[in-house]
Design a protein that fits this description.
605 residues, Arc Repressor Mutant, subunit A, 4 domains, Rossmann fold, 7-stranded parallel beta sheet, alpha/beta, 6-stranded parallel beta sheet, globular
């Protein structure tokens, strides 16, 4: 079959995105490819279309059951012969899928790397006709990456056992060292490399330091900008996940916890509600998210600092996969920095690995404390420079105020020195503020030259100073894991007065304002009739999805419904030209959705 015909008739898209066409032609010619493409950029079509077009079955190696089930359900909706092999199938069901594979009755088969590497599975594949191997989430091969999966390392066996079958490795998250590791470990030295950029222009990045209650700030943000929207809230600990989920639920929001400490049954139930219902918020540790293909997640919030820019990019990338406006909102504090550094130093990793992890954490801190465009810094980290500020991040929209903190920095650094580099932030601030404290008197620090010299700043301002000094590498958290601060060599020019220190001014959290872009993303249309049609289309979609036992977005994405509202097709032929409406879906749902559209004429019609 012609790949372009498949794009249009099966998936309902008129044209390719860059570089989909080149990738597909590479695989059609029997050659290998490595594809780096941002989440929501159309990676899946790069292997799904040639799997359908080439003789045999496309074998997709995927790390999570949720992703397999999601993609297979969506493919079946489009009329594609797809299946998965994983632990959710009993022996009889698995045997039926294996027989379909041997009979050439499947276009795509999804499988986990652990199952693929079984000798029995490799023997099965040797007897089947294979169109290609697609290695999804290929960054899992990187031992120093943020999401390492040991079984991915063994996938080089595919090239050795099946040299004539083309391979494609795909990821949205890989800096230059990770790319080299993917190529080396998977034997992709002869593969064509496609890098289509890392920018997600529809995501608005917003990062602020915690002032007051983080959960109150989160609630204000959700109510002001994302009432009724699906979202993900990330926390560092399981305990915090449970607390935040329960608290949001008590405030009237549909919020559910997800972490490894919950039973498998509870995790599966909560994940199913998030995927299948509208407006559910998942509060989770980083155990949640990989393989979640829900396209209309309108916000991802972090209540703690991620450990690296790669992790931050991957987690925030779960918002706005449909290309509509979405928010990446984060609030963090000094304690996050200390906790992450303590976790890093107390881990069993070798020195080389710890050095890499320290660098990654420092880069993440640097992104947080920026006073210039965040998107430019984020993309520069992935060697994907953005020539001009983006205009869609907090530092572009509301440039932060800075102040000359050279003298307070000297006071803070001197206080660390005068107290013997043995104490944490709270103690140091008490010394600077001249607090009458039994512990301070016991250590004799009420006689120190730095006692009480910081009364010109408040406690919160001093916390900001210390946080930013740590972020800039002028202070280090002690390696023994007790949270004491130590001077670094980099602080010497500051102490000598040879280097100015410009810091972000600490601000109180302002009341969150609604933004036009976010309102439009969740279907707040200017005309009341458009809004009514939008809600009616979503209701019909949910009705169909429930009847079939699939998530609503598997029927149609929000972007497809929004285009129906804008264009108001009146015939099946006109509906066929809406993006995301392929032949199978047109036949299955066309009449249903046209009925809804005709029942909601525009006011001026």
């Amino acid at each position: 079959m012609d790949p372009l015909h498949i794009l249009r008739s099966v998936f309902g898209y008129e044209r390719y995105r860059v570089p989909q066409e080149e990738v597909i032609h590479t695989l059609m010619a029997g050659n290998d490819a490595l594809v780096l493409m941002p989440t929501g950029g159309g990676k899946s079509l790069c292997f799904q279309i040639p799997s359908i077009a080439r003789p045999g079955t496309g074998l997709v190696i995927s790390p999570l059951i949720a992703l397999m089930q999601d993609q297979v359900a969506a493919l079946k909706q489009a009329g594609v012969r797809a299946a998965f092999l994983n632990s959710t199938l009993d022996a009889t069901a698995a045997g039926m899928v294996e027989q379909q594979l041997l009979n050439g009755e499947l276009d795509l088969l999804y499988i986990a790397p652990e199952r693929l590497m079984l000798e029995r599975t490799l023997d099965l594949l040797a007897r089947a006709g294979l169109a290609l191997f697609a290695i999804d989430e290929a960054h899992c091969v990187s031992q120093w990456g943020h999401d390492f999966r040991p079984d991915y390392i063994q996938l080089s066996v595919l090239h050795q056992r099946f040299p004539g079958v083309p391979r494609i490795a795909l990821t949205a998250t890989a800096d230059e060292p990770t790319r080299r590791e993917i190529i080396a470990r998977l034997g992709l030295e002869n593969a064509r490399v496609f890098i289509s950029g890392f920018d997600r222009p529809n995501i608005r990045y917003r990062i602020s330091q915690g002032n007051g209650s983080a959960r109150e700030q989160l609630l204000r943000f959700i109510r002001a900008e994302h009432a009724g929207d699906a979202g993900i809230v990330y926390c560092l600990s399981r305990k915090r996940v449970d607390e935040i989920a329960a608290w949001l639920e008590a405030q009237g929001l549909a919020a559910l916890p997800y972490h490894a400490g919950l039973s498998a049954e509870v995790r599966e139930r909560n994940q199913a509600r998030f995927i299948n219902e509208e407006g559910v918020i998942i509060v989770a540790t980083i155990a949640f998210g990989m393989g979640i293909d829900k396209p209309n997640v309108r916000f991802v919030a972090h209540l703690n600092l991620p450990k690296s820019i790669e992790a931050y990019y991957q987690e925030t990338g779960r918002a706005g996969r449909d290309g509509l406006p979405a928010d990446a909102w984060m609030i963090y504090g000094l304690q996050d920095v200390i906790t992450l550094r303590q976790m890093l130093e107390s881990s069993q990793s070798g020195d080389a690995h710890k050095r890499v992890e320290r660098h990654k954490l420092d880069a993440m801190l640097g992104l947080c404390e920026l006073t210039t465009c965040r998107r430019q810094a984020l993309l520069a980290y992935f060697d994907d420079p953005l020539p001009a500020p983006c205009g869609n991040c907090d530092t572009c929209l509301e440039p932060p105020a800075t102040w000359d903190a050279s003298v307070p920095a000297q006071k803070a650094l001197s206080c660390v020195h005068r107290t013997g580099q043995r104490f944490g932030v709270n103690y140091l601030i008490d010394v600077l503020l001249g607090k009458e404290d039994e512990r301070i008197q016991r250590f004799g620090h009420d006689k120190s030259s730095t006692f009480g010299i910081g009364k010109d700043l408040g406690q919160q301002e001093w916390r900001g100073v210390f946080r930013q000094l740590i972020a800039r590498g002028l202070l280090a958290v002690d390696l023994e894991g007790h949270g004491a601060l130590k001077l670094t060599d980099a602080c010497r020019p500051v102490l000598r007065g040879e280097e100015r220190v410009m810091l972000r001014r600490e601000t109180k959290p302002e009341k969150t304002k609604k933004t036009k872009a976010t309102r439009a993303a969740r279907g707040a249309f200017s005309q009341e009739t458009d809004q009514r049609l939008w809600e009616a289309l979503r209701a019909r979609r949910l009705e169909i999805a429930k009847a079939q036992g699939v998530p609503p977005y598997v029927v149609f994405h929000d972007a497809t419904l929004a285009e129906m509202v804008a264009r108001r097709p009146q015939t099946l032929e006109q509906l066929a030209h809406i993006s995301g409406v392929g032949e199978r879906k047109l036949a299955a749902y066309g009449a249903d959705f046209l009925e809804v559209i005709r029942a909601h004429p525009r006011d001026d019609a």
